[in-house]
Amino acid sequence: MEHLFLDVAAAPLRLLAAKNEKTRSELGRFLAKQVWTPQDRQCILNTLAQLLLDKDCTVLVGRQLRPLLLDLLERNAEAIKAGGQVNHDLHERLCVSMSKLICNHPDVLPFALRYFKDTSPVFQRLFLESSDANPVRYGRRRMKLRDLMEAAYKFLQQEQFVFRELWDWSVCVPLLRSHDTLVRWYTANCLALVTCMNEEHKLSFLKKIFNSEELIHFRLRLLEEAQLQDLEKALVLANPETSLWRKEKELQYLQGHLVSADLSSRVTAVCGVVLPGQPPVPREQASTRNSSREQELAFRSYVLVDSVCRNLQTLAMAVASQNAVLLEGPIGCGKTSLVEHLGAMTGRQKPPQLLKVQLGDQTDSKMLLGMYRCTDVPGEFVWQPGTLTQAATKGHWILLEDIDYAPLDVVSVLIPLLENGELLIPGRGDCLKVAPGFQFFATRRYVLLTFLFPLWRLFLISPLTRILSPKVPRVEFSGPT
Predict the structure, then answer these.
(1) 214: which of 23, 131, 210, 347 fits an S-S bond (Cβ 3.0–4.6 Å)?
(2) Which residue spans of the chain are classified as CATH 3.40.50.300?
(3) According to the lineage, what is the superkingdom (predicted)?
């Protein structure tokens, strides 16, 4: 397995420590140490995870520690559900932090979709206050309601139809009479998105709640926020190399360095890119030791020469950005094995976590979407979902091999999936949205086909050169000298 390190003491931690007195007191003691023990590195990561929840430090932490962002989010999610009970205070802080980062960091939106799948909405406080149960205790610096509604509005802007269906927005209607104008503003904009108002209806709706001066003020505020968002995006994109871990031949613990082994068990580093790992299925936890041994054998059997590392890194970045991936190259160049190795590194070694379909002239859309099949009862039919439907609805990975041989009815199925993330099933009249975690891969050979070309992230995979080919047996079968 590759060894990766990240130098955080040189600039990121020092900038964070200079932010205010709180960050200086929490990070200064680590910067003064000459050597970081494993316990120190875990304390640093936990401290950074807590600073991420401070709305005054969220943007700075996200900008300076991009390689650690997914790990810090996972640590906070684990802390929120620790002990079997939800920490509502930390939940609200995490929601506000994600909303501040969701526009500029591609890791945040996929994480948010996974997180909210089985967690309360941003404005869960409204449900708790309206119930007769025991009141929930919050910290001394309780999040303001205006921050929560602003966060809800930003989530809706990113995935309008997902959060519209996921949360019950009726509890927000009384907030239109709030004394806080910002609460009313964000609530009104949320309800406009939830009800799918056009611009004319939205303006008429806002005029019933705000006077003309307030509308002008809030429009100027939106323009200012958009400019700040563009500036932050420029700062993030100005130095793209800061989002990658660095590779070293042997695992070393140097001053100011964090290593990939320090990361949470929920994430994994692939050639410098941090990806979420696949949590084990409860019924498969008993075989975790065997699967770990198989995973280690898979890592050893895959030789990471320079070209393979570059391909893996680019592929991992596409997965982190949730792009559909098309790998193109001649037979035997390693297109399928590249996807399989990436799946093994993220805990997706076997079906159903990683599904593979070999396309050909005999493949039809029913094989991918599903069909009705008869049962033992005469005249009774049940729906059996196809491979693509299972992967899309359950958030698994799927690899369609030799897509250039796919019939036209299969291509027609893939168009809405690639364009809108929707799967249309003609026989049932269903329109299914893909689940969080779904990833679509396909392979093809060198042919002059351009169908669906703008919808893919295309990778050209070349076979090993004559210079690199001798390195594989030398690395794989080298014995003691």
Answers:
(1) 210
(2) 300-476
(3) Eukaryota
pTM, to two decimals: 0.86
> What is the radius of gyration, based on Cα positions, of the chain?
25
Structure tokens at 438: 């779904």
In our burial notation (b when 16+ CB lie closer than 10 A, e otherwise), range 154-193 reads: bbbeebeebbeeebebebbeebeeeeeebbbbbbbbbbbb
| CATH class of residue range 3-241 | mainly alpha
- Chain-centre distance for alpha carbon 391: 17
For all residues of the chain together, what is the average pLDDT?
A: 84
Q: Which residues pair with residue 4 across a beta bridge?
A: 247
Q: CATH 1.25.10: which residues of the chain? A: 3-241
Count other C-beta atoms under 10 Å from residue 289's C-beta.
Answer: 8
Burial zone of 98 (CB within 10 Å; 0-12 exposed, 13-18 middle, 19+ buried): buried
Give the three-state DSSP class for 378: coil
What residues are paired with 6 via a beta bridge? 258
Compute the distance between CA of residue 161 and CA of residue 421 in angstroms, rounded to an integer: 12
Count the residues in the chain: 481
Q: Which residue has the higher pLDDT, 295 or 64?
A: 64
Structural fold of domain 300-476 = Rossmann fold (3.40.50)
* pLDDT higher than threshold 90 for residue 307: no
C-alpha span between 353 and 347 (Å, rounded):
8
